[in-house]
Structure formats: structure tokens, C-alpha cells
Amino acid sequence: MEDKKELFGICPFVTSQKVLTGKWSLLIMYHLSEGPVRFNELQRRLPNLTQATLSKQLKALEADGLVIRKEYPQIPPKVEYSVSEVGHKFKMVLESLEVWGNEYIEYIKKRTDEEN
């Protein structure tokens, strides 16, 4: 098998996996897909995420072109994050993951019920 670095930008699965490597990437993209969100609001929505980790994940998603950071010149400073055009196209992936995730949750529940 070829090295993952060689497949980045060639194989859609390796490319997607590399871009979404962050543990919180999917949840961040989900929250941003609903519209622009300020940093502190995003942190409130993801209480298990530290400020440093959220900042790091947002910077990575921004560097990959999925997220746009907009800074408003005012006091106190205001920064909003939103999905980019290519990030917006990811919404259909999120919707598919939600459907599959809900089906899998039902599968797990059934399996647990059958075992008990």
C-alpha cells in the first residue's frame, strides 16, 4: 500500500481523513454549518473542549480551507467563524453521518437489549 502522504490529494478517502483528523472536527463543522458562530459561543456548545484545543482545531480547519475566520475591528474584539464555500458542501456529508449515526445507535440498542 502506498504511503498516506503520497495518496493525499489523490485518494478521496485519505484526503478526507487527513483534513478531518482532529477529534472535534466533525462537531465543529456541524455547529458552523448552522451559521456563523463566535468563538465563545462555540466553546459553550462544546463544553468538553478546552480553549486551546478549540483554537488549534479552528486554525487547522481554516488552514485546510473549510472554515473562514472573520475579525471585526471593534472593542472588545469580535471574531466569528463560518464555513467556507467548500466547507458548506460538507453539510451533506454531516447529514449522511447523522442518519447513519442514528441508525447505528438503534443497532447498538437492539444488540444490547438482545444480550440482556
Throw out a few tags for this protein.
116 residues; alpha+beta; 3-stranded antiparallel beta sheet; 7 helices; 3 strands
Oligomeric form: single chain
What's the overall average pLDDT, rounded?
89
Low-confidence stretches: none
Tally of helical segments: 7
Terminal-residue CA separation = 42 Å
Strand order of the largest sheet: 1-3-2
Strand segment count: 3
Estimated radius of gyration = 17 Å
Please report which band the strand proportion falls in: under 5%, 5-15%, 15-25%, 25-35%, 35-45% or over 45%. Answer: 5-15%
Order of helices and strands: HHHEHHEEHH
Overall morphology: globular
Helix percentage range: 55-70%
Label the structural class. Answer: alpha+beta
Largest sheet: 3 strands, antiparallel
Short description, anyone?
The chain is α+β, with helices and mostly antiparallel strands. It is built from 7 helices and 3 strands. A hairpin with a 5-residue loop joins strand 2 and strand 3 (78-83).
